[in-house]
Amino acid sequence: MAFPVDGAYTGYSTGSKFIPEIWSGKLQVKFYKSTVFGEIANTDWQGEIKSMGDKVHIRTVPNITIRNYSSGANLTKEVPTSTPLELLIDKGKYFAVVVDDVQEVQADVKLMDIFTNDAAEQMKIAIDSDILGNVFADAAAANKGAAAGALSADINLGATGAPRAVSSSTVLDSILDCGQVLDEQNVPETGRFIVIPAWMAAMLKKSDLKQAYLTGDDVSPLRNGKLGMIDRFTVYVSNNLASVTDLGSDSSSGGTGGAADRKSFHVLAGTKDAITFASQMSNVETLRSESTFGNIVRGLNVYGYKVVKPEALVDLYAYKA
Question: How is domain 32-321 classified at the architecture level of CATH?
Answer without folding.
Answer: Alpha-Beta Complex (3.90)
